[in-house]
Amino acid sequence: MRNWSRVLAGAVCLLLPLVLTGCMFTASFEDLYEVPQLPNEYTELRGQIESILSDGAEYATPTSGSNIQSVQLVDLDGDGVEEALAFFRNSNEEKPLKIYIFRAAEDSYEQAALIEGSGTAIHSVSYVDMDGDGIREIIVGWRVNAESQAVGVYSIRNFEPKLLMEGLYTQYEVLDFDGDGMQEMILLRSDTEGDPVAEYYDWEAQSLQVHSFARLSMTMAELERVDVGALRGGETALFVTGVAEDTQAITDILTYHQDTITNIVRNDVTGVSSEIFRYTDLWPQDIDGDGVTEVPMPVRLPSSSGVPGDTYWQVVWRNYNTRGQGGVAATTYHNTTDGWYLVLPEEWDGQIAVRQVYSTDERGIVFSVISLDGESFQDFLGIYTISGSNREYKAARNNRFVLKRQVDTIYAAAFLDGNDGWQYAISQENLNERFHLIIREWDPGEN
Asked: Which residues lie across from 340 on neighbouring strands?
């Protein structure tokens, strides 16, 4: 059985015979007008799919997540050969949503299994070996209606689909929560009273059962993001972030503690998280690369611009232990507009102010030392984002030096007059170590 990607690559080569840098061939002029003959296994699969479509079905491509093709190829059983999964909707049937699983047979594909669901659409699909047996389970999010969706986890051992769990959810996450080497599931949803909860499913008798739940601080309408991370002791944790209407970011931190799921930052008196900060478009992450996840806490910085309402923020990154006690891992200045951040020395805390400067094809952030009386500022560092055709010239003038280069942008810096003799001045080498570009991860959409 040939690899599907090679089959498609071969088809492309057949369809592009005039590209000189492509596939080599010898053919007569008349041969160029013949329809390419695809490999048998692809032809057989296409025939089965066309038969399903002719019976009244239509494609039902998953609408979210990283697997959003109508036909997907995955090695489900770990034998090195990919199975084909095709997604359909047939409105004439009681369970209109269909996932057909085809497996390789000689030089062809044959239908091996069928998973059916109710609802209006397939929201998402993922493939995870949850119990560690070498066979991937299929996790399907079914769109029940405009207000709700349900998730089902299916075992396909021996290509006999078995439902291991199902439940309503707004978002779910699969992770090894208790450290036993198997993957569990957490559903984020509203309970029957409308209160937000995280519901933890663990393995019991070869199926996933509700183990425990934890209260959340945000409504499901406010839920924005879920990140899998770690606490200071290395324990796995789920960082659940919501954004309230007043632009506050609310972060709950869920971990497995004393045989139950626990929201370690939820205040028992108020019923909400202690980690509520101004929203800044930054999310929990490992900011210092030590394997521990930090939560961003913005703190206002003084402005040296003299413009009323000109506001700047430094970000204090906090990490946590299993009791929910936070500690400071790093402090940064994040320029999300220009895509960079600077890790600030501890000694700068309470000593600096910032302002923006602009010119043609150039934007800068100027850091200043605050005088002892707090009434004046002395510039000591400028960091500049430079574009345009003469960016190399601009990056070298006025004693500037390059921090980073991208295709059409140069990031440069210069030490200004206030840096001379300042007791907390840093070197060019240290500045280079502290300067970083913001890497935006591709978000395939929620589960």
From this structure: 335, 437
Task: Fill in the amino acid letter for 77.
Answer: D
- Give 139's strand partners: 126, 153
Rounded to the nearest 5°, which phi and psi values hold at 81?
-115, 135
Assess contact for 305 and 355: CB atoms under 8 A. yes
- Whole-angstrom distance between the N-terminal and C-terminal Cα of the chain? 32
What token pair was written down for 327? Answer: 């500690």
Structure tokens, 250? 């609310």
Closest CA to 376 of 308, 314, 302, 427: 302
d(CA 290, CA 328): 13
Q: What sections of 147-197 are H helices per DSSP?
A: none
CA distance linking residue 130 with residue 156, whole number of Å: 12
Length of the chain: 447
291-330: pLDDT as tens digits: 999 999 999 999 999 998 899 999 999 999 999 999 999 9
Cβ neighbours around 221 below 10 Å, total = 11
**Sign of the dihedral defined by the CA atoms of residues 162, 165, 166, 170, in that order:** negative
* Kind and range of the H or E run holding 392: helix 391-396
Type of residue numbered 240:
V
Distance CA 135, CA 156 (A): 8
Q: What is the pLDDT of residues 126-146, one digit of tens each?
A: 999 999 999 999 999 999 998
Measured between alpha carbons, how far is residue 374 from residues 20, 204, 392, 422 in Å? 70, 63, 37, 16
The dihedral over CA atoms of 115, 116, 121, 126, expressed in degrees to the nearest 10, equals -20
pTM over the 0.85 mark: yes
Is 7 in a helix, a strand, or coil?
helix
